[in-house]
Design brief:
Number of helices: 18
Distance between the termini: 18 Å
Order of helices and strands: HHHHHHEEHEHEHEHHEHHHHHHH
CATH superfamily of the largest domain: Fumarase/aspartase (Central domain)
Number of domains: 2
Radius of gyration: 30 Å
Shape: elongated
CATH topology of the largest domain: Fumarase C, Chain A, domain 2
CATH class of the largest domain: Mainly Alpha
Strand order of the largest sheet: 1-2
Length: 432
């Protein structure tokens, strides 16, 4: 298993300390670019790189007066650097720094989420093969449909996780852009070479056409990707919640030693982890919706998006990281009851074979409508009277005109339903 990191790493990415470090990283990269063009003396650049620093408390003190976080930051840094600070922020606007630094933070956060997804994908693969030959009832509309492999559930989630990995990779690539192009993106007070040099140093691509800001469809795409990951998490959580219902009880969350499920009922073992994940996924999705509202800004920029992003981007990255880690733990120690799965299959009296009966009669020459009517009549009697479906088929004179006793019994072979599982696994996992 990949060594797992603590969620403190994600929290640090979105800390004020790291935000200002990223701002400083951008400012220094720009200073280095200016120096390459001969506009900043080498000794001044070295002084900037050596002395540039800040104190969070001092930034807060300055901001209380100036009411502008970037100016407060620059003033606090200038106090550390001295006279050479006159070269810092030369030709820039605030968003050059803020948006470019935000891309660096998002890249860091995305890398951690990518690790989560890759590790989770490998766990799902392991569980898919562990339960490949475990037969359970498939359900549509919550009602017994046909038997399936329990391992296919994990294979299904594995494949969806692969898609989320690819989506995240693409969204991260499109969000990994910066802009060092001035007040309305026209390079009015800064050479175009500065952006090329600085962004290359930072590992970012330039926004081809910018206003004062990097365009917010990029951020909306990234947050939409996180929302899809959260939707997958809830999809899995809802399935486990259903399987843990007393009437089903085919699988359940791990219930650790000393854990208690209810203040009133000592017997309770509730799917609280999965319920928590279902709730958090709603928050991630609603935050993603807010990101779409940020795309349309007045003219070349307003700051209506800024207050929103200070919440939704850090929160969604932190939430998705937490959710994937929590779900990993639930799946890793999931309690599975194969015997209960077989008992639950028996609850519908073998009615799940109705399609096979229908098709067998059609093969014998009946029209589909005739075969459907005969099969459904017997199926409804079986359900209403609580008698095995096979019994009615064996005693139905009309059906016996077409199907022998051995043919009818052969229809009820449970393994028939999983005979193509290997084929599906081959498509998903390839040769193992």
């Amino acid at each position: 298993m990949i060594e797992r990191y603590t969620r403190k790493e994600m929290g640090h990415i979105w800390s004020m300390e790291n935000k200002f470090r990223k701002w400083l990283e951008v400012e220094i990269a720009v200073c280095e670019a200016w120096a390459e063009l001969g506009k900043i003396p080498q000794d001044a650049l070295e002084e900037i790189k050596t002395k540039a620093d800040f104190d969070l408390k001092r930034i807060d003190e300055i901001e209380a007066t100036v009411k502008h976080d970037v100016i407060a930051f620059l003033t606090a840094v200038a106090e550390k650097v001295g006279p050479s600070s006159r070269y810092i922020h030369m030709g820039l606007t605030s968003s050059d720094v803020v948006d470019t630094a935000l891309a660096l933070q998002i890249k860091e956060a995305s890398n951690l989420i990518m690790k989560d997804l890759i590790e989770f994908k490998e766990l799902l693969r392991e569980k898919a093969f562990q339960y490949k030959n475990t037969i359970c009832m498939g359900r549509s509309h919550g009602v017994h449909a046909e038997p399936t492999s329990f391992g296919l559930r994990f294979a299904l989630w594995y494949e969806e996780t692969k898609r989320n990995i690819e989506r995240l990779r693409q969204a991260t690539e499109r969000i990994s852009v910066g802009k060092i192009s001035g007040a309305v993106g026209t390079f009015s007070n800064i050479p175009t070479e500065i952006e090329e040099i600085a962004l290359k140093k930072l590992g970012l691509k330039p926004e081809p056409v910018a206003t004062q800001v990097v365009q917010r469809d990029r951020h909306a795409e990234f947050l939409s990707c996180l929302a899809l990951i959260a939707a997958m998490v809830e999809k899995i959580a809802v399935e486990i919640r259903h399987l843990q219902r007393t009437e089903v009880l085919e699988a359940e969350e791990p219930f650790t030693k000393g854990q208690k499920g209810s203040s009133a009922m000592p017997h309770k073992r509730n799917p609280i982890g999965c319920e928590n994940l279902s709730g958090l996924s709603r928050l991630v999705r609603s935050n993603a919706f807010a990101s779409f509202e940020n795309v349309a800004l007045w003219h070349d920029r307003d700051i209506s998006h800024s207050s929103v992003e200070r919440i939704i981007i850090p929160d969604n990255c932190i939430l998705v990281d937490y959710m994937l880690n929590r779900l990993y733990g639930i799946i890793k120690d999931l309690v599975v009851y194969p015997e209960r799965m077989l008992k639950n299959i028996e609850l519908s009296y073998g009615l799940y074979n109705s399609q096979r009966v229908l098709l067998a009669l059609v093969e014998k020459g009946l029209t589909r409508e005739e075969a459907y009517k005969i099969t459904q009549t017997n199926a409804m009697r079986s359900w209403q009277e609580g008698v095995p479906f096979m019994n009615f088929l064996l005693n139905d004179n009309e059906i016996r005109k077409y199907l022998t006793e051995d043919e009818i019994k052969g229809i009820f072979d449970l393994n028939y339903y999983t005979r193509n599982v290997d084929y599906i696994y081959e498509r998903v996992f390839g040769n193992r």
